[in-house]
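Morning run. Coffee first, then this:
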Amino acid sequence: MQNIYKYLKYAIGGEKRTEREHDIMVFKKSEELALKYGIEYDPKVFVPDDLEMGDAVFEAGIELLHSVGIFCRSTQRVINIDEEDILKALNTTNPLEIGRLKEKVVVPHRYPMISFPPVIIGGPTGGSVSEQNFLYINLSSVQENVVQGIYSGAMNQFGGEYIQPRSPLEMLAVLKASRNERLATKIGGREGLALMGPSTSTLTTSSLLVSSDELYSTCDPQEVYMDDLKVDYETLSKCIYHQEHGNHYITGQVPVFGGPCIGSPEGLAIMDVAETLQSKVLAHSSIHACGAVHANTGSSSAKEIMWASNLASLGISRNMNYYTARYYWNTAGICTDMMFYETAAQAIGDTVCGRNMLLGPSGRRGSAPDHSSGLESRFMGEMAQLATQLNLTEANNLVSKIYSKYANRLNNPPEGKPFEKCYNIRSEYDMEPTEEYLALYRKISYEIMGDMPGEPV
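And here it is:
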């Protein structure tokens, strides 16, 4: 708690600054640092192989966090982060175990081109989910052996009523959603499977309501959402609560390329590193998840996003001991070739660049309900396993081929089909993907395996 108290004092009595001023400072400083450290985006590259540039991005991220600080929205003041605190945090970490019983998973430390895959967490990862399909969508991921945890979505109704954020109805919805997530693990014969979230909550009280042995236990990483080098009292309160109760928690951030703070892929890569450092130094989270998206498409699968994310991952995995994850926000809907292509391109890059955990994927940018399924998570895990055979250059060449198959559709992606039209659901104990869906999954899988370097598969 000592560091949080130290930074709370800054939040109360630190330098005054408006949020607009902070955004401008972050934007300008990140662009200056890109020039200072020689970080340059190449639009032909998806998976950078320049390890020295990865290290440079990491150094730039340290300087960005130290020089700009963290803006506290609750007080309109700046939390200064000492460089010494950043450096002390780089090589200190606790082993991370998630899940319980026979579903316990030790999250491995990973670095570029390591021979074992990241941990696979299925589910909508905060995307919209209908009340009637909530249990089934979670079950579809529980059924997949490659899935090692569930990151559920936001239930959009309760009792048929749309949920007004920050209302008592939300608390009931969060309870129902969490109970259905846990029920899915029991029905699927995988009780103890790690839960991550909850995603329905906007109230701090809603999140803490389900923090219990029954629902989100100390072994289930609980969500603490943060913003672009910003924080507020509710976020800090959640961190204090989880630390006091010995909970694992995951800090999630979704920086927007083309938003007020980020104007270039280079700036995004530096921001990715700075936010990761913020999560470890200020929030003391067990794991940090980035879900950067492009302002024009709302996707995490655009080439600028993948380049920046992969470069940041190279720098982070080589220079600090910390667990990182990535959200997949695809533009296409499920049961489309583009959804599979978007997932493959990201999973291959994240795996070879050292991410510890992959989350999702969620289709239709998470905004349309029920565009997530266990089959998509299975595919994500299989693409990650495939990528463990590749070096950075081989991964870049493969991702380039995959990206060419959907690049011209990012602004007009196929809508696909909602979950209930992609699975045959006879009961919660008897459901599987439709033949059409399975045929498409097999087709894309074989196509990508055929593009692998070396002998044809």
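The chain has one domain: 97-450. Good start to the day.
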